[in-house]
Amino acid sequence: MSFPHLLEPLDLGHTQLKNRVLMGSMHTGLEEEKGGFEKLAAFYKERAAGGVGLIVTGGISPNLRGRLAPNACQLSFSWQVKKHTIVTQAVHEVGGKICMQLLHAGRYGYHPFSQAPSKIKSPITPFTPSAMSARQVKGTIKDYATSAALAKKAGYDGVEVMGSEGYLINQFVSARTNKRTDEWGGAFENRAKFPLEIVRSIREKVGNDFIIIFRLSMLDLVDNGSTWEEVVQLAKALEQAGVSILNTGIGWHEARVPTIATSVPRGAFAWVTERLKKEVSLPLVATNRINTPEIAEHILSSGQADMVSMARPFLADADFVNKAAANTPEQINTCIGCNQACLDHTFALKRATCLVNPRACYEMEINFSPTAHKKRIAVMGAGPAGMAFSVYAASRGHDVVLFEAKSEVGGQFNLARKIPGKEEFNETIRYFLEQIKLNKVDLRLNTRLDASVVRDEAFDEIVMASGVLPREIDLPGFDSPKVVDYQQVLSGQVTVGDKVALIGAGGIGFDMAHFLGEAESSTLQPDKWLKQWGIDKTYQDRGGLMAPEKEAVHKQLYLLQRKTSKMGKGLGKTTGWIHRLVLKQHQVIQKVGVNYEKFDEQGLHISIDGQSEVLDVDHVVLCAGQVSNRTLLEEMQSTGLPVHMIGGVDVAAELDAKRAIRQGAELAIKL
């Protein structure tokens, strides 16, 4: 398949973009690290060389109070220009274009100096903002213009004004957060005055030969958000004010609707950009969960947008566009929308990276240079760790043989992809299979590695990536065929009844509850998914919300946990709330502080705080963790060769593909 619309240039008048791909804004954490701008330059340079038409940086504040966190980056003074120049020069060296995003956090600021239109605390931050005075409003507008002028001085090709996701500008526009009674509040014309004055001031300061992108919240997904009529009115006014491109913003950060998680259907929000295309003549950018050139091409060719924005897909693969242009999309390392190494890292104040690409944001530290000492390496297990190591080691020039006892590669990913909303895990398996072929890894399926093979084939090193085994529980009646483990259920070996108890409420337990509770994956049915989460394509009410459509309950599920702590406490920060809401949709009964006693014909016997209870269930599914599969460790050590353990066989406390793939990469560099 070719991608003519994706690769078509876009003329902006004073400049031309080489294709319709915008690398969306992402905060990487490098912005605040010592020497971070050199690393940031390497990061963006690879993406520019990889073919991206236009890059947008992570958010940079126009002033001190607008910072997301106390140490976050701002551009307000001439002495700050120099470090930004490092980035713009690196991008321009390879023919790329880059815009700096201007972002004022408003009430989302994670510090006590935050400001907002009104003194209303956000539900996702601990600090109550102060209400801006009229003088401070005007000063902030001036700060935006000053920051944009400094961005131009630093060599940026333009700026993106962040006007969505619930940040300051969005807070001014929405009646939800703007309770002012002066000229900046009240009627919509007054609330919209703030973004319009910002754009006019920037345009006046930077001239016409400078890109201004405005990220417009087209769908707030919060109560008392903007109406569709207000979205259109603001879009038209922004066009008149001098905006070059309108980017799409979906959902406030406090919205209780998923917008970028892996369970969100691909291109699920392109319809709202398409709707606005009928109202303005500016180039419009579609965004959110666009992660393949095929879906991007469809959005462009069907007229839903003029450009597509992809952020995390460029963490996963810097060469996304070049691979699409070469008509080799199968070689793209696809973003699976997991958030585990990007957004979860950002919220933990750690450097962002990527689960499927550990080089992301580590371009100066992780590189697979050709080896001077070629080795013959046996790898046991073709799960994420084994596949990653094999590909990276082979790319360095080692002779790698990958042994897999089963008939397919993937390991735990083959189970994960069965969970509704995690179908994207198929893409990672597909990618590594392609890389195994390209790097000439000798893949041997249905083949167990043993000591005799190691000796007969003269290997130099052994890498064990044999994964994990489900943890067993030794209690009366737990040897019953009705007590099974999660692997047996997900692999299809066992079909459970209509009443099921799940022992263990970590990530596996939540996934199993979703797997058993959702008859058909709504992720593969976009319209059904929108109704499930209460998203109204007709946009009848403010924020585009409606009452969620309730699904029929197919099974009676109990999710049980020994600990008395909050259930799901260890889930990802940016996705845990989604998993909890999904279980609520499936009416899963959750119990903490559970003591397990026995299983018999009556069901599962438990006690909580000394009170006994019998759960009338057909099956019990064990999701209580796993242990490292080291059954062949002694045999491998008996060969006398160096034995390395990576992935679950090394640490089985949690199923952690991020750590497994990274371990594979780091070991490949060392050997």
Automatic annotation (TrEMBL):
SUPFAM superfamilies: FAD/NAD(P)-binding domain, FMN-linked oxidoreductases, Nucleotide-binding domain. Keywords: Flavoprotein, FMN, Iron, Iron-sulfur, Metal-binding, Oxidoreductase. Its cofactor is [4Fe-4S] cluster; FMN. InterPro entries: Aldolase_TIM, FAD/NAD-bd_sf, FAD/NAD-binding_dom, NADH:flavin_oxidoreductase, OxRdtase_FMN_N. Residues 376-654 form the FAD/NAD(P)-binding domain. Residues 6-330 form the NADH:flavin oxidoreductase/NADH oxidase N-terminal domain. In the N-terminal section; belongs to the NADH:flavin oxidoreductase/NADH oxidase family. This is NADPH-dependent 2,4-dienoyl-CoA reductase. It comes from Shewanella surugensis. The lineage of its organism: Bacteria, Pseudomonadati, Pseudomonadota, Gammaproteobacteria, Alteromonadales.
